[in-house]
Write a structure and sequence with these properties.
Helix content is 65%, strand content 2%. It is mostly helical. The strands form two sheets. A two-stranded antiparallel ribbon has the order 1-2. A two-stranded antiparallel sheet has the order 3-4. Strand 3 and strand 4 form a beta hairpin. The longest helix is centred in the C-terminal third of the chain and has 26 residues.
């Protein structure tokens, strides 16, 4: 049992091998662009994933030897993807619909490729820096949309992904700032992103996640004597602040209205959600054992809605209820793949919250996992959506972040950066906060636990 806990909390992966300089630089550029595109453009993400896939082929032997499947999060994710693939092919056969359903979960494979890439490249920190820059630019666009109606309409369909992505970046910034020597720039950026979700994005999911993450940040940043008070005071203060937000007021009014019909006889967004929950629960009770198939959710949902409301009602008023997306990843897993897929998905969600860093709980991973779990309860976020790509990429970047330096006899330490090329700069590096790793072909330098929140830049 102790070995399993050790594997879950602190898995031991082989030390990364050095890459050729041209390949290292190419991967850094591709990962940087991926980080910048992730918050706001699926097209850019698709292009960069294709580029990274080609570059990963060139580094395939080193990726294989880095054994990313030894990480329990990656291992369970691959097991879930394998189950989804086999189950879908067994139920639906080799059809285009089956291929689309399987491809909807390629983020689980993407995680197994990105983790070794982040560990192999010399400057992985540029990924998150670009992600922060992209998130800030995306947030500024939402503020502009308050004065440009056409832009607001264009951004309206992305409010769910925008809210979650901005909040995940904000939360990670606040956690990294705790151990950074200059924390306030990161905290100001995080506050700007949070304010954007509260005042400029009309997304219920974002508002719920913001409330939860605010309580978690208050808990993490307070001493033990004040944690419980902060856990209550911070959300209350946020609720008071939200009284001045027209976006929150609109969503609250619609939620209170519940399933009431609008002026044209159609249900409100909240009413649609309620009907989707009812239909999803009905399907879950019928298909929880073996699952109806990930490519067949639309079919079984249509049959269920038709049985409850009749074919004429479905054709005229309930067309929204026969979609192939239950708008809940939990419902999708248990209806599509049964209890086996549901269990694997739950384990995959929980494992990041159990990860340790330097012998302590990793608060950044805990908040990330909780926020994504809340989002998955309200939306199907893992099915090839912007949120799924974003969460997986940020998750594996955090998994690959530095830990306390540990030298080995067979390779470099588990956390390496290059020593500055300038002798004066190298001499100025405090011995208590850095170390040179002679086993690393790059001649590495790694930050201590007091500055590990910031990935140091690497000199050639």
């Amino acid at each position: 049992m102790s070995r399993i806990l050790t594997w879950i909390r602190s898995p031991a992966l082989p030390p990364p091998e050095p890459l050729p300089r041209w390949l290292d630089r190419s991967l850094i550029v591709a990962l940087t662009l991926l980080g910048f595109f992730l918050p706001w453009t699926p097209a850019g993400v698709s292009i960069m994933l294709a580029v990274l896939s080609l570059l990963a082929l060139l580094a395939a032997p080193k990726i294989w030897r880095s054994a990313p499947w030894r990480d329990p999060i990656i291992a369970v994710g691959l097991a879930l993807l394998l189950y989804i693939t086999l189950h879908t092919l067994w139920v639906s056969g080799f059809t285009p619909a089956a291929g689309r359903a399987i491809n909807g979960y390629h983020e689980l494979l993407m995680a197994a490729i990105l983790l070794p890439l982040f560990r192999l490249v010399s400057q992985p920190h540029w990924f998150f820096r670009a992600m922060v820059l992209g998130a800030i630019a995306y947030a500024a666009t939402h503020w502009m949309a308050l004065f440009i109606p056409a832009l607001a309409v264009a951004l309206g369909s992305r409010r769910i992904s925008a809210g979650l992505c901005l909040l995940l970046v904000a939360f990670v910034l606040t956690e990294l700032a705790r151990s950074h020597p200059r924390p306030w720039p990161a905290r100001i950026a995080a506050a700007f992103l949070g304010a954007t979700v509260l005042f400029a994005i009309d997304g219920r999911t974002g508002h719920v996640v913001l409330l939860m993450l605010t309580a978690l940040v208050a808990w993490n940043h307070c001493s033990k004597h004040w944690r419980w008070a902060a856990l209550v005071a911070a959300p209350v203060a946020l609720l008071a602040l939200s009284l001045g937000s027209s976006a929150v007021q609109h969503r609250v009014a619609e939620t209170i209205a519940g399933s009431a019909k609008g002026a044209n006889g159609e249900l409100t967004s909240t009413g649609v959600r309620i009907e989707l929950v009812r239909g999803g629960l009905a399907l879950a009770t019928q298909n929880y054992a073996t699952g109806a198939g990930f490519a067949r959710y639309g079919d079984v949902n249509r049959q269920s809605v038709t049985a409850r409301h009749g074919p004429e009602a479905v054709r005229q008023k309930l067309h929204w209820a026969v979609a192939n997306n239950p708008h809940s990843e939990f419902v999708m897993q248990i209806v599509g793949g049964g209890v086996a897929a549901f269990s694997l998905f739950i384990v995959w969600l929980v494992l990041p919250a159990l990860r340790w860093q330097n012998g302590h709980a990793n608060h950044a991973l805990i908040g990330l996992a909780l926020a994504f779990a809340v989002g998955c309860a309200l939306n199907s976020m893992l099915r090839d959506f912007v949120e799924g790509h974003f969460y997986v990429a940020l998750l594996v970047w955090l998994l690959a972040r530095p830990t306390a330096p540990t030298h080995t006899n067979n390779g470099p330490c588990n956390a390496c950066f290059n020593v500055p090329a300038d002798p004066a700069a190298r001499q100025a590096a405090p011995a208590a906060q850095s170390h040179a790793c002679p086993a690393n072909p790059h001649t590495a330098l790694r930050s201590s636990s007091t500055t590990q929140a910031a990935w140091l830049s690497v000199q050639p």
